[in-house]
Amino acid sequence: MNISIIGNGAIGSLLAHKLVNIGNFPHLWDKTNNPIIQSHLINLNGKKTTHTFKANNSTLLIKSDTIFICLKAHAILKSMHVLQKYISYKTNLIFVHNGIISREKLNKLYPYNSKFIMVTSLAAQKLNLNTVRHTGDNFSWIGAINKSYNSQKVISRLINLNFIKLNSAPQIYNIQLKKLCINMIINYITTVNDCKNGALAQKKYNQLILDLSTECRNILEKEQFNIELEEILAITYEVIQKTQNNTSSMLQDKINNRKTEADYISGYFIELAHKHNLEIPLIISYHNKIKQLQERIGHDRT
């Protein structure tokens, strides 16, 4: 299988190394234009490995059977528009990102491609341009955006590669919504309070986590996804415990003066709340706090 990865951030780099472990050297595409990318991985045991990848080759991109798009949500539509001329209509497109972007816009850009969403619990941190640290290993789920005659065949092939713990998810939207809840709760509280994930286990955050979880759960219920509040809380605290030493992705964005994915996380929840006439004052409050942070570092200025 000829695989390319668009986006050489933490998850894109980690997936590249995971594929190498099964003997598949993917082609990488990033914003450097370098023809070769040397990438270092520090695994969960602290061992460092180095691999060299072909990169930014339009011919290899066109010949790809499958492309993983590992970009920030706010960069996907613009980047995929620019790359249209280098992507065959036969190529399977797998979107791996936080937040939720418009499926209608993706279908308009790539009407003939088989398109998939992959939701992952893999965790990684980019230490510098060429080094990534693997910080958490858990399950990932994949489901089709536009179900076609070969979508299940593509999913089965990817699962059978056995490069990550990957499961098929026919109801991938529900998986996205569940992860969106956890992302919002952990990312937003840690970013506003400048703390690592583990700090949220402190008693002083209990009520805030409960209130945010309740607002999230009310939105999910209106979207016909029935999930108990206790399940959201249990997953949230499990992630807090397992990633206690991690810096959340949104806090990393803040530290590095990067634009956050707020419009595709809390922004998406706000859209759903308006659609269902729901009151979500706490989510709106935290959304505004993150947007104010972005304005202070030069993003979101009109």
Q: What is the CATH level 1 assignment of the largest domain? A: Alpha Beta
Determine the N-to-C terminus distance.
44 Å
Helix and strand sequence? EHEEEHEHEHEEEEHEHHHHHH
Q: In total, how many domains does the architecture comprise?
A: 2
Counted by DSSP, the helix tally is: 11
* CATH architecture grouping of the largest domain: 3-Layer(aba) Sandwich
Q: How many β strands by DSSP? A: 11
Spatial order of the strands forming the largest sheet: 2-1-5-6-7-10-11
Q: What radius of gyration results from the CA coordinates?
A: 19 Å
What's the CATH H-level superfamily name of the largest domain?
Answer: NAD(P)-binding Rossmann-like Domain
What class would the helix/strand composition place it in?
Answer: alpha/beta
Mean pLDDT: 94
EC number: 1.1.1.169
Organism: Paraphotobacterium marinum
Domain Ketopantoate reductase N-terminal: 3-146
Function: Catalyzes the NADPH-dependent reduction of ketopantoate into pantoic acid.
Describe this structure as you would to a colleague.
InterPro entries: 6-PGluconate_DH-like_C_sf, 6PGD_dom2, ApbA, Ketopantoate_reductase, KPA_reductase, KPR_N, NAD(P)-bd_dom_sf. Its EC number is 1.1.1.169. It catalyses: (R)-pantoate + NADP(+) = 2-dehydropantoate + NADPH + H(+). This protein is α/β, with parallel strands linked by helices and 302 residues long. The protein has two domains: 3-170, Rossmann fold (3-Layer(aba) Sandwich), CATH 3.40.50; 173-296, N-(1-d-carboxylethyl)-l-norvaline Dehydrogenase, domain 2. Helix content is 43%, strand content 18%. It contains eleven helices and eleven strands. It has helices spanning 10-20, 58-62, 73-82, 103-109, 151-161, 172-193, 206-222, 229-242, 249-255, 266-276, 281-296; strands at residues 3-6, 27-29, 36-42, 48-54, 66-69, 92-95, 115-120, 123-128, 131-136, 140-144, 166-168. A seven-stranded mixed sheet has the order 2-1-5-6-7-10-11. Strands 4-3-9-8 form a four-stranded mixed sheet. Helix 1 links the parallel strand 1 (3-6) and strand 2 (27-29). Helix 6 (172-193) runs antiparallel to helix 7 and helix 6 (172-193) crosses helix 9. The chain is globular. The N and C termini lie far apart (44 Å).
